[in-house]
């Protein structure tokens, strides 16, 4: 008859005992996994929140930019045939009717004419092979063209305000801008035919027609005839004389005249 002998832990020699794992260490993997999952969940929510905030901010900026562009759309919404007709009419000094022919507020054509005038000036400067002492050729041309378009329109608006002329600043910008057609043509003639009287002929004919067209626009929008004659004469003289001054100053930059 065999008898089972139970060796307890006390009967096992110390050298043969296996170290026991505490219960806390056994639970460490599960606790670490839960903590890591919680951290990843919080980090994901934070990243998603940041992405949502950034996307919302970009959407607001895009909507604001579109709204600003949409405000400018009426001033640049024009057809090509309309611009062509207005370019031709800038040389026809006919008295427009105050009620039938309202002055537009379109700025596409005037802005393109300003850049065209810049191109004409740069062409003449580079064609002569000379340099400007102060600044650059581009800066000089931009200052001359935009300076007259905005500065000259401001002067005309000042006189229109004094003599009760029914023209807004945008309408004056439109009128002055299309008056630059004569500037582009006359200065291009002066550049292509230097040393001749071609510019003087173009200035006397085209320049005076363009200035007369602008003067009639101001005259027709002034209630009092005497005041309209005064403001029209001021506009005619400034626009016509400044073209000749620009020719002289332009040739002083690119070469002797």
Automatic annotation (TrEMBL):
Keyword Transmembrane recorded: yes
GO BP term (any one): cell differentiation
Membrane spanning residue stretches: 107-125, 137-163, 169-193, 200-221, 227-247
Low complexity bias (residue ranges): 13-23
UniProt keyword Transmembrane helix, yes or no: yes
Region of interest (Disordered), ranges: 1-31
Keywords linked to the UniProt accession: Cell membrane, Cytoplasm, Differentiation, Glycoprotein, Golgi apparatus, Membrane, Transmembrane, Transmembrane helix
InterPro entries per UniProt: tRNA_Mod/Golgi_Maint
Highest taxon of the lineage: Eukaryota
Bilayer disposition of the protein: Multi-pass membrane protein
GO cellular component: Golgi apparatus; plasma membrane
Subcellular location: Cell membrane; Cytoplasm; Golgi apparatus, cis-Golgi network membrane
Cited function: Involved in the maintenance of the Golgi structure. May play a role in hematopoiesis.
Protein name: Protein YIPF3
Organism: Capsaspora owczarzaki (strain ATCC 30864)
